[in-house]
Please model this.
Amino acid sequence: MITPGTMLGGRYRLEERIASGGMGDVWRCVDDVLGRTIAVKILLPSLLEEAGFTERFRVEARTMATINHPGVVDIYDYGSDPAAGAYLVMEYVEGDALSRTLSRVGRLTPARTMALVAQAADALHAAHEKGVVHRDVKPGNLLVRPNGTLVLTDFGIARSAGAAQLTAAGSVLGTASYISPEQAMGEQATRLSDIYALGVVAYQCLAGRRPFEGENPLEIAMRHVREAPPPLPPDIPPAVRAIVERAMAKDPGQRWPTAAAFAAIARRSAAELAGAGPRPGGVTPTALPPRQGAHGQATPTPTPTSPGVGPGTTPPRVGTRVLPNPPPGTVAPGAVPVGYPLPGYGRGQPPLPGYLQAPVQPPKQGTSTGVIVAIIVAVVLVAVCVGAAIAIVQQQQANANALGPAGTMVVVDWTHTDNGHSGNGEHGNGTTEGELRR
Model:
């Protein structure tokens, strides 16, 4: 039994099991030789009993170790130990799987979804350039670092061109909820199958649910083949909707021709949604078939900034008029609000443009401030005028009392009467001190 403290290969000390999957368990470990934290995937014993599996996995591990991209988890070592069997040593990535984020918040904003999709597509393109098809793209295999950058992991059922002949004919590999129609029909997975799966991931981020559900994996897989996905929520911009629909086309020839083309259009959409603003006169991309080359092969949609794509042409434009921040009350329940922190990963790289939505600008204060000042000045002037009028009236009344009726002088006698005070506390004889005499 494998427990914390178990040593693999005389150098990898197991500390904590952090994940489990169909291929095996993943442990956080310490490399006692280099003194660093790593991740080790220990394969299930039942897989090792399959004919040819060990050799195929060894070839794929060697191929994946040659992929040098910040969005692909690094492979350090591969070995076998009597205590645990075959294992794969990988880079340890801190952060949460996208699946955990979705279970916590429900939905992501279109800008964040497109930013994450662009990173995932870049990582797929790096793998495809090495002849590796992932075949199991899903939120659980997309890790997001705290700074928002994404890492594609778990190439456990990937297929490299060098090990293709070792894959059993007609075998269906991949999670049913994200499997492409051609994989569900038993056909060989291709790069376009990964693009379809990433399109399903984008759909789930935007809708808060997977496009197809069922009572068993076979039913779900067949729905991918036969049914169109339900429409995305109405608050999703048409441009984003078109990008996802093209990625999820049933016919592989109708999808984005390469992962690089998918990344380019998703990145551009994310930038526009995050505050760059719509392009005047732009058009919404549609699910048009890719251009055909001289031999009937789909040619990539190149962009000068995309890796592996030739210069001289540009990807489709996204010009749908989309507000960077929707008006209050228009975002569906469960959507992530502006500024919601998304957990993630990365190698010191800043998040892609559009990962965070543009902050709402405060209203201009110039006009309202001037009005307020004018009102205050008017109030002060009215108060001064009223005070002056009251003072004048009081002065006139005082002068009138001093003269008396018909101009008779009033004499004020301030002497006390000789009668003194009465016992009841009143002045004697009903007179008061300072009585006025005419």
